[in-house]
Amino acid sequence: xxxxxxxxxxxxxxxxxxxxxxxxxxxxxxxxxxxxxxxxxxxxxxxxxxxxxxxxxxxxxxxxxxxxxxxxxxxxxxxxxxxxxxxxxxxxxxxxxxxxxxxxxxxxxxxxxxxxxxxxxxxxxxxxxxxxxxxxxxxxxxxxxxxxxxxxxxxxxxxxxxxxxxxxxxxxxxxxxxxxxxxxxxxxxxxxxxxxxxxxxxxxxxxxxxxxxxxxxxxxxxxxxxxxxxxxxxxxxxxxxxxxxxxxxxxxxx
Length: 254
Known about the structure:
Blueprint: H1 4-16, E1 34-40, H2 46-59, E2 64-67, H3 76-84, H4 91-109, E3 118-122, H5 125-138, H6 146-160, E4 165-170, H7 173-187, H8 199-215, E5 219-223, H9 229-241, H10 244-251
Parallel strand pairs: 1-3, 1-4, 2-3, 4-5
Helix pairs in contact: 1-4, 2-9, 4-5, 4-6, 5-8, 7-8
């Protein structure tokens, strides 16, 4: 149930587009949690990598939490209804709507950010922006350019917060599509890959992710196309281990 203060929060965000940490009652100096986002197209290995990182970080003695802000998004159901109603949903409205929901979710979990732990996120604001671009092009929007994307990034930048480590997985579209198909086969279900999971769509989405990874701050690309799961894990752990928060977390346990 969305309460009145959250509705006001949503409307305020839509009107202003400005979100800041002090406004949320959070100051960076007091945030001890190490936040890691794993983004990437479907089939790039996000879930697999997060599972491997979870075990690796636990082995390092870290308190690890897998975070799904969507579970705490008070506007999720409202957004689903908007998508299903008559007419084509405006991708910019969806973008702002999701940003406001994530902002509310962060407020609901803000205390956890002050605790010494590692927080793993699957899908962050690169995914949100890629979906926005895909929706914009599908709806015939013209003139999408880097300057416009930078302004859009500014709108949601502090909604998701800047993670300590932001990993964007890259993968050849054909390989990603094959992985998705294999996943369906292993599940033993009659379901087949959706229209959004075919090679052509994945190729377009890959281009969005590659371009966005160059624009967003603090993002690292790992190509998973011809790499084993272990190799990808090693590269990701190497990035994480360079974080000062990770060094502090592991030093205190040795």
